[in-house]
């Protein structure tokens, strides 16, 4: 196995055992990143020499007995919204040409303190305002969307061009690309990971979290992001865990392959000892209105000055959304905030009867690049962004933690994802359930095909 093929936990174990050096790992991942760059384009920029120097420094520290934990010497990609002092934060937008960060973000500082090796900045949909990341291609099939807005981060991890990555999630922007590229994505509880120094899309919905190859890797990164000591996830069965299975919303308007894959995963959780409980998801008819009612005006407020002075520097899709946000009335925004409060209250009540809710992460696998809508058998037609955000938005509105894990592939061989939504502060419960499920899959942690070539179909 080549070093870039190792999971974070596997690489950390090899480094701790003296079987692999941070420099060897970083060099392997950089070579892999260069190999896939022309096809997948996950990075805005790679900092080869800086990364190699950081890896050599990590190796010297480890040799001197000054280890900083499991992320020490591990290569990562940062979504290009996350400030690193002295480096550009472009947000994949011409609006940010020439921008250099004055200080480290909290996230970058904590990962540096943990000894992680920064490879470079990964592409985002412009200012995180989209669900496709059009400049980046899906790691499993280059003619498909990467998902967004953390598409570059997900593709880098799926292709072996980063051992782990950091993304942001305002309406599904970690979980959607994770599901579409066959990796793990964790949106922590709102506010658990500080957003200071991270370019905001919508302050009340923004979250920062990891994209990794396995659930264990996600838990390792979360500990560093929160400044806590890592506590290993428990092994064994899921006896006593109450798993909520939605009877509405989450299985409405999904492909048969998505439903089959997720229900099979639910069955595996039951076989591991979990108790399945039917749950009714509250206030589903308001999800879309609340998500857009919060996000659109907040985003437009963030961009008020530059939208008026240099509107031509924005991409057409993002500029239209920002201009639309300026038409929102204060009363509409306040009604969205009020509905969010009620929705969170009802979700908290739901978790009095269950420990985690299990549902599809996306309604369909990655659509073809350029596809604008998704049609359903009952005649319903959704825009691609609306389709992808529909199942992920509730966890942003309520601020609850949500973990996406791969659950197989569709008939074309494209990845499918399941999300596990935890109750308030329920990251560890979601991670426990996700890791238990993951251990039933022999393909857990596997990389995407070479450089985004069309994959062979695989049964779920």
Can you walk through the features of this model?
- The chain has 460 residues and is of the alpha/beta class.
- The chain is built from 15 helices and 13 strands.
- It has one domain (11-288, 327-452): Amidase signature (AS) domain (Amidase signature (AS) enzymes, Alpha-Beta Complex), CATH 3.90.1300.
- It has helices at 8-16, 22-40, 48-63, 106-113, 151-159, 175-181, 215-226, 256-271, 287-302, 304-309, 316-325, 330-350, 384-390, 393-398, 427-438, and strands at 43-46, 75-79, 117-122, 164-169, 184-187, 207-212, 242-246, 275-279, 356-360, 373-375, 381-383, 402-409, 415-422.
- An eleven-stranded mixed beta sheet has the order 1-3-2-4-6-5-12-13-9-7-8, with helices on both faces. The chain has a two-stranded antiparallel ribbon with strand order 10-11.
- The chain is globular.
- The relative contact order is 0.14.
CATH superfamily: Amidase signature (AS) domain
The beta-strand count equals 13
Shape: globular
Helicity level, as a percent range? 25-40%
- Number of H- or I-type helical stretches: 15
The first-level CATH class name: Alpha Beta
Task: Tell me the fraction of residues in β-strands, as a range.
Answer: 5-15%
- Domain module count: 1
Q: Which CATH architecture?
A: Alpha-Beta Complex
Mean pLDDT: 96
Which runs of at least 5 residues are low in confidence (pLDDT < 50)? Answer: none
Region (Disordered): 439-460
Domain Amidase: 24-430
Protein name: Amidase
InterPro entries: Amidase, Amidase_CS, Amidase_dom, AS_sf
